[in-house]
C-alpha cells in the first residue's frame, strides 16, 4: 500500500467520469479521497451514461492528458463487454474476498461497487397521491408528468427503468420484460404522460418532471437536498422491483494507473463503502460490514423500509445483455420519443 500511495502521488492526479456529486454520495467520497491522499481529481462529464463512459475510453486511447478517464463506474452489463473489447485492465483490491463472487469478474477486470432499486421520485406539491405501482403511471392524473433519468438508448439507469416497468406488466417474466417495457412506454407516451426530458432534481422541483423513475439512492439524495422545497416522496413500487448493480473498472489505457488502483483501494475500504451508504447506496460489501458491526445505526435508519427491497430481482448478466439490447435498439422504432 505504501508503494502504491507513493506511485500514485508521483502521478499526481486521477481522472474520473460520470460521477455527479449527488449520486450515491460521490461528492463526499471524492472529497475524502482527495483529503486522504492529496491527489487532484479531474471530473469529466458528470451527467454521462455508462455507454458514454465506455466511448470515452475508446476515443482517448492515445491521450495521456486529462480528457482520458482512468476509471469508470458503469452498469453491470457494461463490465463484461468492456473486458471483451480490451478496454479495461485487471486489478484486485485488498478487500477482494469480501466482494460476492456473483458481482465480480474472476480475473479482476471489473467488480461490483454498490446497488439500489428502481423507484419513483415524486414532487408532492404537484402529485397529491403518489403512484404505488407501475400501472398507476398510465392514469390520466399523471399527464405530462413522468420522466426517465437518462436516455434509454445509452444510459443504464433509464434502460433499467424500462425493464422494471416491463417486468411488472409481464407478471415477473424476465424474458418478456424488455419488449413489455417498450410497450409500456409506447402506451405512456401515447397517453401524453411521458415527458422526454432527462429527469433530475431541478426539473423535478420546477415541475417539468414531477415524477422521475430512478435509482432509490438518487431519489433519496434529492429528498435531502431539496429539504422540503418541494417535499419529495420516494416509492419502491409494489411489483417490478429491479435491483441494479454498478461496477468499477480501470481503463486499459489509464494515464494514471497507480492513482486508479489507489482510488479502487479507497472505494472498497470500509471508509469508502460507508461513504456510499451515506449516499443511500447499498455498498457491495454491505453484508460483510454489517456482520462485523461496522454499519452505524443512523445510516440504516435513513433508508426506506426493508420489505420493499426484499422483492428485488437481480437480473443475471445474460438477462441484462438481452433486455439491454432489446430496449436500446428498439426504443426509437417502438416508442419514438427523443429523450434529451
Care to give the gist of this entry?
The chain has 340 residues and is of the alpha+beta class. The protein has helices spanning 2-11, 26-37, 50-59, 78-84, 156-169, 174-190, 201-206, 216-226, 257-267, 270-278, 286-291, 297-301, 306-310, 317-334, and strands spanning 13-17, 40-44, 71-75, 88-89, 111-123, 146-148, 211-215, 232-235, 243-251, 282-283.
Q: What sequence of helices (H) and strands (E) makes up the elements?
A: HEHEHEHEEEHHHEHEEHHEHHHH
Which structural class matches the secondary elements?
A: alpha+beta
Radius of gyration: 19 Å
Q: Give the total of beta strands.
A: 10
Strand proportion: 15-25%
Characterize the main sheet: 8 strands, mixed
Overall geometric form: globular
User: Which bin fits the share of residues in helices?
Assistant: 40-55%
Tally the helices: 14
Low-pLDDT ranges: none
**Average pLDDT rating:** 95
Task: Give structural notes.
- By secondary structure, the chain is α+β, with helices and mostly antiparallel strands.
- It has 14 helices and 10 strands.
- The protein has helices at residues 2-11, 26-37, 50-59, 78-84, 156-169, 174-190, 201-206, 216-226, 257-267, 270-278, 286-291, 297-301, 306-310, 317-334, and strands at 13-17, 40-44, 71-75, 88-89, 111-123, 146-148, 211-215, 232-235, 243-251, 282-283.
- The mean pLDDT is 95.
Amino acid at each position: 500500500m505504501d508503494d502504491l500511495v507513493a506511485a500514485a502521488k508521483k502521478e499526481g492526479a486521477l481522472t474520473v467520469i460520470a460521477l455527479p456529486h449527488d449520486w450515491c454520495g460521490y461528492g463526499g467520497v471524492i472529497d475524502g479521497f482527495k483529503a486522504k491522499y492529496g491527489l487532484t481529481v479531474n471530473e469529466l462529464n458528470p451527467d454521462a451514461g455508462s455507454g458514454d463512459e465506455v466511448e470515452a475510453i475508446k476515443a482517448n486511447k492515445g491521450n495521456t492528458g486529462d480528457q482520458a478517464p482512468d476509471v469508470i463506474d458503469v452498469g453491470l452489463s457494461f463490465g463484461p463487454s468492456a473486458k471483451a473489447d480490451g478496454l479495461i485492465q485487471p486489478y484486485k483490491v485488498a478487500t477482494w474476498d469480501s466482494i460476492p463472487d456473483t458481482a465480480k469478474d474472476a480475473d479482476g477486470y471489473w467488480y461490483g461497487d454498490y446497488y439500489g432499486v428502481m423507484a419513483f421520485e415524486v414532487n408532492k406539491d404537484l402529485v397529491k397521491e403518489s403512484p404505488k405501482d407501475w400501472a398507476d403511471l398510465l392514469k390520466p392524473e399523471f399527464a405530462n408528468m413522468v420522466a426517465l433519468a437518462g436516455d434509454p438508448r445509452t444510459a443504464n439507469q433509464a434502460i433499467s427503468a424500462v425493464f422494471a416497468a416491463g417486468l411488472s406488466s409481464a407478471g415477473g417474466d424476465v424474458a418478456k420484460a424488455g419488449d413489455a417495457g417498450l410497450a409500456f412506454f409506447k402506451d405512456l407516451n401515447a397517453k401524453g404522460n411521458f415527458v422526454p426530458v432527462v429527469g433530475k432534481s431541478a426539473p423535478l422541483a420546477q415541475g417539468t418532471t414531477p415524477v422521475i423513475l430512478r435509482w432509490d439512492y438518487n431519489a433519496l439524495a434529492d429528498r435531502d437536498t431539496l429539504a422540503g422545497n418541494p417535499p419529495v416522496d420516494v416509492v419502491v413500487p409494489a411489483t417490478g422491483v429491479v435491483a441494479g448493480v454498478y461496477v468499477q473498472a480501470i481503463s486499459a489505457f489509464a494515464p494514471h494507473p497507480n492513482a486508479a488502483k489507489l482510488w479502487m483501494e479507497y472505494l472498497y475500504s470500509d471508509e469508502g463503502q460507508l461513504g456510499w451508504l451515506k449516499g443511500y447506496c447499498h455498498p457491495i460489501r454491505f453484508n460483510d460490514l454489517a456482520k462485523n458491526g461496522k454499519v452505524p445505526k443512523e445510516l440504516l435508519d435513513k433508508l426506506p423500509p426493508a420489505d420493499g427491497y426484499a422483492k428485488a430481482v437481480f437480473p443475471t448478466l445474460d438477462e441484462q445483455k438481452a433486455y439491454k439490447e432489446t430496449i436500446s435498439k428498439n426504443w426509437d422504432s417502438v416508442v419514438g420519443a427523443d429523450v434529451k
